[in-house]
Structure formats: structure tokens, C-alpha cells
Write a structure and sequence with these properties.
This protein is of the alpha+beta class. The protein contains ten helices and 13 strands.
Length: about 400
């Protein structure tokens, strides 16, 4: 396992930034407005408990297609998922909480299209891509590691686990620094059980600052009074998805942000979310098709709960275990996901990472998870890297 403390002190989530993230997530700002819920910790995990459970490379966030590029530009990123993991001697104890660390390779912004428009530092990112390709080629040559086939846990872990972890640690230590930590988000629960709470933070000159969710209803145009968190809650004291979404993933791509306009209701026809499926008023198959489409749905027009639940909710519409299993296999086949890493359990709301338990096989310990959303994003990224435009600063790599 690669722990946060395995890196140089000023590299991957330095201690002071980690402390800020924990304070915001568990403090009054991180609480879900209109409820008594906020993220808590069973074991109060320290920085050394957090393990890297996922690594993603993206040449053009928030999306690599032309409609998104024309508004947002491109922000090349390396993204990490980190989770508290302890070795109990008889297995791994994984808390139902995770950090999403976003490292961006951005140059000073020179565009006026949108205040969110990004100009990439493609030279720096290209070096990171070259170094990663060298690791891939090295393990393919020396250990016959083949990464073709359905998405799964990287096969190098099976044949050269320790060596591969060391290579990844050194790679991240070389390319991720305090200055390119762009944003941090957290998903977790209030110490035990649900609700699941999602909160995003931007890294500024003054440290981490919570980001008002751009795709949920906002009560006031004052950012200080914004809804910073969103939750999935079945305790009955709020609607299942709260605050309710105000998505725009079925409308033209724009750079509007709800907290700036105090959006108080979903505009009919502008977007869709899994919230309606949780109340029985929406077709989850149609909803999931939009949410999992990376060319339509992204952070600025889709709520957190939707991206974290579209796959599992689609499976859960089936009434029996055998029918749920059949739906899991169908999604896996259609989107190139290995069946072993589908979100097996009803309580798994991960896009990518380790669930605390494998409910399908009723076995304890970490269960690797990859959702439909993660698979479609990965497919776009792979297609982008195979194009000749992935490192262009003036155009998108996909139409």
C-alpha cells in the first residue's frame, strides 16, 4: 500500500492541507444545511492511515469533447483517490470514506470565455505522461503486463506488486506538488452508516475553501450561505437526495454556477439526476445514460450524488438478487468493466475505489469498485490519448 506519509512532506497532500480538509469536512461549514448531518470518523484516521486506492490521468478536464472545451478549455490532471485503510492482521479494515485529490497542470489563464476557463501547462503535463508511459512500457517488457481487456485492478499488482507500487510512488512524488494541488473533495458518513455526504474544496492562496455545489439548489446568492454539501439519506428526516439537484446536463454546455444565480428549482428539461429515481418518478436507465455520458455530464452541471449512484441505482431497480446480478453483468459487458469490480453491494456509492465489504460474496475486507461513469470517462481519455490532439492547447482532442 502507498500511504500519504510515503511521499515527501511537501508533495502529496501535505500535513497542513490534510488538517484543513479534515477540519472543513467535520466542521460547521461541511454540515448539510437544513439537517443535523455532517461527516464524522469512527477511528479519527491520521494522515498515515490514508492509502492511495486509485490513480487517474485526464488530459482535458472537465471534458475532452469540443462543446466542453469551447467553454472550459482544458485542465490536464492527475487525480488520486485516498482512503483510510488499516491492516488488522487478518485482513484490511477500510473506512467508508474517501478523498479525491486533483492535481492540475494549468498555466496562467489568458482566456475571457468563462471565469472557469483553463489554459493548460501542456509541457509540464507531457513530461508526466511520458514518464507514466515509460513505466507502462517497462512492466510490459520485463513482466509481460498486458493492460488490454475489461477495466480491472491493474494487472502489474499481481505479478510485481511491490516493484509496481514503488514505481507509482516515485512517479507521483516527482509530478505532484503543493503548487499544483487544485482541489480536494471528500465523501463520507457521520461515523457509522448513512447518510453519505459529499463536499468539494478548492485550493486557494489562503488554503482550502469549500466550493458551493454548482449543480444543487442554492438558497441565496451569497456564497457564504451556500449549500456546500449534498447527501444521500434514507433516514427520513430529509428527501433521499438533499439538497435537491438543479442539473443542466441535458442543455447546452455553459459555465453558469448555481450559487451565483441562487437557483432554487430544477429547470424543466435542462437536466436529469438520480434524485428522481430515488423517489420513483424517473427512469433510471434513461437517467444513467445521461449521467454516465462524460460529454454531457461533468462537475459543473451534475450533482455529486448522481455521479456516485447511477450504476448502483440501475442495478437496484431489479427486484431479485439473480436479476440484479444479470443487470451487473449486462452493464459490465456493455461498458468494458470486469464483473469482479462492479459495485456489488447496495451500500456501495463509489465511482472508483475500495468498498469496505464485498456484499455479493458476503466477505469482509476491501472490494475494488469501478462504476459505469468511471468506465465511460476512461474510454474517452484513452480515445483522447490515441488522437493527435491530446496535447493541443488550442483545440479539443475529440469532436
Amino acid at each position: 500500500m502507498i500511504r500519504l506519509t510515503d511521499f515527501d512532506s511537501e508533495r502529496v497532500l501535505p500535513q497542513d492541507v490534510f488538517d484543513q480538509a479534515m477540519q472543513i469536512a467535520t466542521g460547521p461549514t461541511g454540515a448539510v444545511r437544513g439537517s443535523n448531518h455532517r461527516i464524522g470518523f469512527i477511528n479519527n484516521p491520521q494522515r498515515q492511515d490514508w492509502v492511495i486506492s486509485g490513480i487517474r490521468i485526464d488530459p482535458g478536464a472537465p471534458g475532452v469533447t469540443k462543446d466542453i472545451f469551447d467553454v472550459f478549455g482544458k485542465s490536464p490532471q492527475i487525480r488520486l483517490v485516498a482512503q483510510p485503510v488499516r491492516d488488522t492482521g487478518s485482513g484490511l479494515d477500510v473506512d467508508d470514506i474517501s478523498l479525491h485529490l486533483i492535481y492540475a497542470f494549468n498555466a496562467p489563464d489568458q482566456a475571457n470565455i468563462c471565469n472557469l476557463h483553463n489554459t493548460p501547462d501542456m509541457a509540464r503535463f507531457s513530461n508526466a505522461v511520458s514518464d507514466l508511459k515509460a513505466i507502462k512500457d517497462d512492466f510490459a517488457t520485463r513482466h509481460s503486463v498486458d493492460t488490454s481487456g475489461p477495466l480491472n485492478v491493474h494487472p502489474a499488482f499481481d505479478v510485481a506488486g511491490t516493484e509496481f507500487k514503488t514505481a507509482l510512488r516515485d512517479y507521483l512524488n516527482s509530478h505532484l506538488t503543493r503548487d499544483n494541488l487544485f482541489a480536494v473533495s471528500i465523501a463520507g458518513i457521520p461515523e457509522r452508516f448513512e447518510p453519505w455526504i459529499f463536499l468539494a474544496m478548492n485550493n486557494t492562496d489562503n488554503g482550502l475553501q469549500p466550493i458551493p455545489s454548482p449543480a444543487t439548489n442554492q438558497p441565496n446568492s451569497d456564497p457564504r450561505l451556500a449549500n456546500f454539501s449534498q447527501m444521500l439519506n434514507f433516514r427520513g428526516d430529509t428527501p433521499p437526495v438533499f439538497p435537491s439537484p438543479a442539473t443542466r446536463n441535458m442543455a447546452a454546455i455553459d459555465c453558469e454556477m448555481n450559487f451565483g444565480n441562487a437557483v432554487t428549482a430544477q429547470v424543466p428539461g435542462a437536466g436529469t439526476s438520480t434524485a428522481s429515481a430515488f423517489t420513483g418518478s424517473g427512469d433510471i436507465n434513461e437517467i444513467s445514460a445521461v449521467i454516465a455520458d462524460a460529454s454531457a455530464s461533468h462537475f459543473f452541471n451534475t450533482d455529486c450524488v448522481s455521479c456516485h449512484t447511477e450504476t448502483r441505482k440501475q442495478i437496484d431497480q431489479m427486484p431479485t438478487r439473480s436479476e440484479k446480478n444479470a443487470m451487473m453483468n449486462q452493464i459490465a459487458d456493455n461498458f468494458g468493466i470486469h464483473p469482479a469490480v462492479m459495485p456489488h453491494g447496495d451500500w456501495n456509492v463509489r465511482v472508483m475505489g475500495w468498498a469496505p465489504i464485498d456484499e455479493l460474496n458476503n466477505t469482509p475486507g476491501a472490494h475494488a469498485t469501478i462504476s459505469r461513469r468511471a468506465a465511460t470517462e476512461t474510454a474517452e481519455v484513452v480515445e483522447c490519448f490515441h488522437s493527435e490532439k491530446w496535447n493541443s492547447v488550442t483545440e479539443s482532442c475529440l469532436p
